Amino acid sequence: MVLAFVLGSMLEVAARQSLLLFDGNVAGFVTRPISGGLLLMIVATIALLPVIKKLRDRRVAITEAVESGHPENAPELINEKGKK
């Protein structure tokens, strides 16, 4: 929690300095290659979270079916997990 307070104030100061450099234009944060790339990676990660969760649920369902000794039940378990 203390780390959040320290880094939060540092982030605020850095954001103000950047806005002063870009004359208040927020587009300056994404026109640079590194910042644009980081922003793209963050957006892609957030967009892919539901896909990752679905794949993880599918893997868990298949593992449960195999461990229960009935791998033929895997499709039903996958469908049950998808409905939750």
Structural class: mainly alpha
Poorly predicted spans? none
Mean pLDDT: 83
CA gyration radius, whole angstroms:
22 Å
The biggest beta sheet is recorded as: none
Q: Please give the alpha-carbon distance between the first and last residues.
A: 34 Å
The shape is: elongated
Count of DSSP E strands?
Answer: 0
Which strand-content bin applies to the residues? Answer: under 5%
Q: Helix-strand pattern, N to C?
A: HHHH
Q: In DSSP terms, counting alpha (H) and pi (I) runs of 4 or more, how many helices? A: 4
Helical fraction equals over 70%
Q: What features would you highlight for this structure?
A:
mainly alpha
Describe the protein.
By secondary structure, the protein is mainly α. Helix 3 packs across helix 4 (74-83). Helices cover 82% and strands 0% of the residues. The mean pLDDT is 83.
Care to give the gist of this entry?
With 84 residues, the chain is an all-alpha fold.
Record the SSE blueprint.
Layout: H1 2-21, H2 28-31, H3 33-67, H4 74-83
